[in-house]
Amino acid sequence: MAKEFKLPSSLSVFGNEDIAYDFLSRIWGKKGVFTCTIGNTMTSTIPGVSEAGDTPELTLFTPAADAEMLVNGRTTCMKGIPINPGGIPTPATLTMAALELSDMPLHIINGGCRINPYIPYYEVGGRCGEAITSGKSVHNVKECFERGKVLGGMLAKGHDFLVASESCAGGTTTALAVMMAMGVVTENLVSSSSPRNPRELKTRIVNESLNAANIKIGDLRDDPLKAIECVGDPMMPVNVGLIIGAAKHVPVIIGGGTQMAAVIAAVIQIDPSVIGNIVQGTTRWLVKDPNSDICRMIGGISESVPIVYINMDYSKSPYEGLQAYEWGFCKEGVGCGGASISAVISSSGKIDCDIILDKVHEVYKRILNI
Amino acid sequence: MAKEFKLPSSLSVFGNEDIAYDFLSRIWGKKGVFTCTIGNTMTSTIPGVSEAGDTPELTLFTPAADAEMLVNGRTTCMKGIPINPGGIPTPATLTMAALELSDMPLHIINGGCRINPYIPYYEVGGRCGEAITSGKSVHNVKECFERGKVLGGMLAKGHDFLVASESCAGGTTTALAVMMAMGVVTENLVSSSSPRNPRELKTRIVNESLNAANIKIGDLRDDPLKAIECVGDPMMPVNVGLIIGAAKHVPVIIGGGTQMAAVIAAVIQIDPSVIGNIVQGTTRWLVKDPNSDICRMIGGISESVPIVYINMDYSKSPYEGLQAYEWGFCKEGVGCGGASISAVISSSGKIDCDIILDKVHEVYKRILNI
User: Fold this and answer.
1) Do A147 and B119 touch (CB under 8 A)?
2) Which of B32, B67, B234, B345 lies most in the core, judged by the most C-beta atoms within 10 Å?
3) What is the pLDDT of residues B2-27, one digit of tens each?
4) CB contact under 8 A, B105 and A154
5) How far apart are CA B297 and CA B184, in angstroms?
6) What is the β-pairing status of strands A161-164 and A32-39?
7) A147 and B105 in contact by Cβ < 8 A?
8) C-alpha distances in angstroms, B341 versus A163, A250, A348, B336?
9) Shortest CB distance from A150 goes to which of B31, B72, B147?
10) Phi and psi for A283 in degrees, rounded to 5?
11) Helix (H, G, I), strand (E, B) or coil at A51
């Protein structure tokens, strides 16, 4: 079956095609469940680190606001919607469009927030993370991991596949730090929500954080939860557990970019048996980003975790805020890639990039009242 | 279709048969989702009120422990399992058996607990309730109702029907108080987890509570949320919202006895359009209880909410702790009736009372290590 599988033009695959095609053929036309784990790390308030918010302080509102948009179609914890400086709207706009089209059930999981969303969410015992420069950045890691694992098993029931995703501003920096601590990357390949990826700043913060935790590159190869506890963020332990708990029962799409690469590295180290039942799901914007290298990063983590990406293209959008995605803004987040891929998959390819783009415009006009 | 519907001997119907048969025929063989909303009210610690726990203090652990049993198959927040004085095991044993057989997805919702369970659960902003004798017993009622409504809509997605249920020790007393405040009952018809139903004590506490809140019988007929705020418990506002939110999309089985009767009264007052899409799901033990009258109570609330009950019979069980259900202990709770009915429904009747009883024995031996 996998060999005969024909990929629609809306999707592309990078990496292990056998696994990707087998994975896709098993869930083609099936019904999944979407999850988004939100968290805050005080790392995002270090000036210059995160552009997932109009100002460093507002980055703390972005995860809760993203979650509110997915559930209620509007924000409650803040006015307006999360934007990058310059007004580029959160990728939650694409996630919303894809979820509306696929009518996928949705669960928000609170990994640990400073600002909690005004919606129903899954609680797993997490707390807001400290700045990673402390070297002690995440609380209750074991507990959140274990509850995440239980939740993964619970949500796998009654659904054919699961999508895990994240909204956690500052998360590419914490991801870099965790992957350096594990030694799965030894140089800065990570992405940014801005085309002006502040690589030097991130590298400096990561080095400072590893020093504060007294960790040398690769020291925690065998102990990813310890790496997360020292230099990670609260989105990570829950998602690591969730993916392991779910992938024992159903295929799991790990929706996201650099941040989820760190999660994948931890998942595979803790339970390599999930290989074959997980893919990374992301966007063309991220895969083609000239300022990062997700393919090399994932390839360095495992040869058996393919990347499936959605070929969304905003270049012909009439809205500059969306065109900006083509210039390197946002690119990924809030599971926008995973949700889009899932809409294609669960519709057996009937939903394509054009249909999703139309729905994105509808969502965009609705939330901006234009 | 409804007319031709043949009820299996495992199930019986009381009340409006047309609605019941139509309801059952629409979800026969379909897949539902089970929810249990847990909450604490300090009312349960008033000596003599609740036997849902070995001592008045332990009643505060019962909801969290019940939830842990459903999710993990064992308790973490306390040693052993919740029992009535005398050692009769929580009805969660029956719920576990039914959920194992039907493989139904499960969500625990935290209405507001003093003791939180060590599992993943849905958070909706609730807090532990005060003793109703204060006349101000539940916090954040509007917020919990609204979030419950949103959650009902979310959980209806991807499932053919929803089961709402509760574990909240002391809840028959708060239920009586709310129904008196609404005027839907004018005398004490409510049940108890003990055959020695302490009716005089409950009546006295309810009268004291209504006085404290300056409410006369029927004063709050049109404002059930206010009745809950004054003399209810934190399980109620969430479940009222959940049922209204879900019943707009899918049929809803309201699993439970007296406590859910109060919830039903509130639901119907707030949104009568749900009629036809809800039934109460309970047990033969409750319907046949000589010390309460659920049928008269529900009949007084509405002629259009039928009761569907499972004909479980523990009289031939080799375990005295289970035989005690036949003597009037426990009878209902933790959605045991709703879960059992759902197992019959989703298997198109292939799962029957005998199969459920065998599974109950398996669960009973496993959790008591015998």
Assistant:
1) yes
2) B234
3) 567 899 999 999 999 999 999 999 99
4) yes
5) 8
6) parallel
7) no
8) 31, 27, 35, 9
9) B72
10) -115, 155
11) coil
Report the mean per-residue pLDDT for chain A: 96
- Please, which residues 23-62 of chain A have a Cβ atom closer than 8 Å to chain B? 31, 33
Asked if the structure places residue A120 within a domain, the reply is yes
Which whole-number Å values give the CA distances from A266 to A19, A180, A182, A272, A295, in the listed order?
20, 12, 8, 10, 17
pLDDT digits (tens, 9 = 90+) for B39-76: 999 999 999 999 999 999 999 999 999 999 999 999 99
The tokens of B190 are what?
Answer: 């409510």
Burial class (CB in 10 A: 0-12, 13-18, 19+), A228: buried
DSSP state of A13: E
CATH of residue A243's domain is 3.40.50.10210
- Looking at residue A2, what is its pLDDT? 56
Chain B residues 78-107 with a CB less than 8 Å from chain A: 103-107
Q: Which of A71, A105, A151 sits opposite B150 (nearest CB)?
A: A71
Enter the DSSP assignment of B231: H
Phi, psi of B98 (to 5 degrees): -65, -40
pLDDT of residue B4: 76
* Chain A residues in contact with B151 (beta carbon < 8 A): 120
Q: Does A119 touch chain B (CB under 8 A)?
A: yes
State the Cα–Cα distance between residues A253 and A344, nearest whole angstrom: 13
Decide if B158 and A33 are in contact by the 8 Å CB cutoff.
Answer: yes
Chain B residue whose CA is closest to A110: B123
Report the distance separating Cα A134 and Cα A139, nearest Å.
12
AA letter at B113:
C
Residue B69 in domain? yes
Q: Give the integer Cα–Cα distance in Å for A89 and B30.
A: 40
Condensed to tens digits (0 to 9), the pLDDT of residues A326-365 reads: 999 999 999 999 999 999 999 999 999 999 999 999 999 9
Nearest residue in B to A31, CA atom: B158
Task: State whether residue B153 is helix, strand or coil.
Answer: helix
- Which positions in chain A touch B122 (Cβ < 8 Å)? 120-123
Q: Which domain holds residue B306?
A: 11-368
Overall domain count for chain A: 1
Please check whether residue B148 touches A, CB under 8 A: yes
The reported pLDDT for the residue numbered B173 is 96
Strand pairing partners for A308? A13, A281
Closest chain B C-alpha to A37 CA, distance in angstroms? 13
Residue whose structure tokens are 């500059």: A320
- Cα separations (Å) of B16 from A78, B247, B275, B299? 48, 18, 11, 10
| Residue A207 included in any domain | yes
Angle between helices A171-182 and A258-270 (to 10 degrees): 40
Instruction: Give me B286's structure tokens.
Output: 């409750």
Closest residue on chain B to A116 (Cα): B125
For A109, residues 6+ apart whose C-beta sits below 8 A from its C-beta are A35, A36, A37, A38, A121, A122, A124, A148, A151, A238, A242, B120
- Report how far apart the first and last C-alpha atoms of chain A are (Å, whole number): 46
Look up the pTM and report it. Answer: 0.96
Place of tokens 């009805």: B91
Q: Looking at CA atoms only, how far is residue B250 from chain A in angstroms?
A: 14
Kindly give the parts of chain A with pLDDT less than 50.
Answer: 1
Q: Answer whether B151 touches A (CB < 8 Å).
A: yes
Write out chain B residues lying below 8 Å of A33, CB-based. 158
φ and ψ of A245, to 5 deg:
-65, -40
- ipTM score of the complex? 0.94
Can you give the pLDDT at residue A3? Answer: 60
The answer to whether the CB of A37 falls within 8 A of the CB of A238 is yes
Specify if B34 maps to a domain: yes
CA distance linking residue B88 with residue A219, whole number of Å: 53
Smallest CA–CA separation between B72 and chain A, in Å? 8
- Cβ–Cβ < 8 Å for B81, B69: yes
Helix (H, G, I), strand (E, B) or coil at A205: helix
